[in-house]
Amino acid sequence: MGGMKKNFLVRAFFGVTIAALGGVLLLRNLEIIKFDSWHLFWGTVWAVGLVLAGLTTIISSRKMLTRAWGLLLMATGVSIGLNSYGVIDISIWKIFWPVVLIAVGLMVVFSIGSGNRKKYEKSASDSSDNEKVAIFYGEDSRVKGDYTGGSATAVFGGVDLDLRQAKIKDGAVIDIFTLCGGVSISLPDDVIVKNEVRGILGGSEDKTVSKSSAKKTIYLRGECVLGGLEVK
């Protein structure tokens, strides 16, 4: 699954969810339909959303701990869905937070002494993988070498993308999507930024200062929904 497809799936899901919610509310307020099964609606939304988030996290990461987090998100989504439709009768919140604490503890234990190695691996692998997805967690990325464009998606999380040591291709495009999250992009001063990101109850801030000899242009496109983009 390519990065642009990951970005599209996330954006499409939240777009369809918001549109469906608006449609249900409109038809209900106009008394065209009677709808009181909000627990089923939100149960389905959370179930599908968490399963999609977990699947995207697993596919987009090579780290075992991040993939384990993706599996936890998927398991939580399945449990919420089954509970909403009465298949099981277990309060997900009674097991979710204990499992999260266990996962966090294991992440701390396994990350001890591996910071330098992970930083090096991140820098080396990002040159060939420019599609960043962070859902309910944070993603730090330093890109070296050629950069032809990519995407950054942050949902209840954050992406920190450092391109200061990258050789950015003229006309490169970064597709941005944030929902209750944030994206930070650091750029060299030899590129001109064209920020075309739309803010929906969110926004973007461009702090870049390009030098007078800059000729290459990088385009930022997408949406920030209840989130933000910082370019520096």
What can you see in these coordinates?
With 232 residues, the chain is α/β, with parallel strands linked by helices. It has five helices and ten strands, in the order H-H-H-H-H-E-E-E-E-E-E-E-E-E-E. The protein has helices spanning 3-29, 38-60, 64-84, 92-111, 115-125; strands spanning 131-135, 138-142, 145-155, 158-162, 166-179, 182-186, 191-200, 203-206, 216-225, 228-231. Helix 1 (3-29) runs antiparallel to helix 2 (38-60) and helix 3 (64-84) packs antiparallel against helix 4 (92-111). The longest helix is centred in the N-terminal third of the chain and has 27 residues, at 3-29. The radius of gyration is 20 Å and the shape is flat.
Taking the alpha carbons of the first and last residues, their distance comes to 30 Å
Radius of gyration: 20 Å
Query: Low-confidence spans: pLDDT under 50, at least 5 residues?
Result: 113-128
What does the main sheet amount to?
5 strands, parallel
Shape: flat
Total helical elements: 5
Overall pLDDT score: 79
